[in-house]
Amino acid sequence: MRIFNPGPEYSQIISYLLTGKSAREIGRIMGYKSGGTVSKKIKRLINHGYLINHTGPDNRFYSITLKGYSIIGNKREDNSPTQSGKVEALTENSDKFYRLHALQIKYWLKTPLPAENIHIISFKDHPTHLRNLRNHSDLIVEFKDFNVTVSTRAIKFTNLEVRMPYKEVNDPQILLTKAMALIEPEVEHIESLLSKHIPGLKLQRLANNVLDAVVTRGEIAIENDELAINVGKIQKDTGEKLRIYDPDDGKISEIVDFSKGPAEFESVHPKKLIENLEIYKQFLDDLNSGKFYDRINKIVEVQEKTMQIQEKQEEIQKNAFSQFDERINEHLNLVNNLATQFFHALDELKNYMMR
């Protein structure tokens, strides 16, 4: 197998990508006859772990790995997280982000390992950080302090964190899939390291060469969410905390949390992360589009019509009872008249018999 050693032109390509230029623009600047040449070089950088490709609904962007930083000689230490692992808070003008944190992902092994190979490995201050090439302050994936548990049938990664631009993920159903795709290159790197010390360790791959994995735990936050920020201000003023409980099992389902800086909406139910996120996202979309207020107006209209129907029913019942009372009185009068006539007839018969 040929070893790939990227030369200065690859460093230039990454540097231009950092400024948001397209492959066609880079090709023109560097004097290539077509943008296809640059696209091929970008593909090689992706295949060898220097870049990660992301395709959004409107465009495509790339994340640069630590390996990618090494060939441009710019680690951007000024943008690294603090020692506590916290990322600087976004400003009110920043775009919204999904932040998947406290993630636990289980990767299945191709073949079971002997029991003596069970390990728990803690990584502290791990140097891998993936950043958005368009904005270095946007930390995309953070492998800082996390644990790797090697069991007989799987490897479990615990305490991972991923951030993705809100506008790049229209459907929350694919959020976890995209997050796992971002994490996968680093997982494969750690697989390579572990396999040197644990014979036979190899992760299971599906037909499309994607790692066979499942998210077993985690929380999903929406950073810089306007509604959550306003609720957070109310929470600070009143001391009350918003907690929404699941109606089925009573567990906490959603919260508004400001422990990381600006308030965030968080979906925290262990079994309904995506379901609750979809409900909240739909609520936000309806709120911003005005559909929410249309629904409120429709509810008010239905309530008003219901009250009108109830009033009409009460009126009909009242009239019915009134008409029923009139008929009863007529029958009573008729009975009284008949009784009077009967008794008169009896008196006349009695008088006749006594003559």
Automatic annotation (TrEMBL):
<protein>
    <submittedName>
        <fullName>MarR family transcriptional regulator</fullName>
    </submittedName>
</protein>
<dbReference type="InterPro" id="IPR036390">
    <property type="entry name" value="WH_DNA-bd_sf"/>
</dbReference>
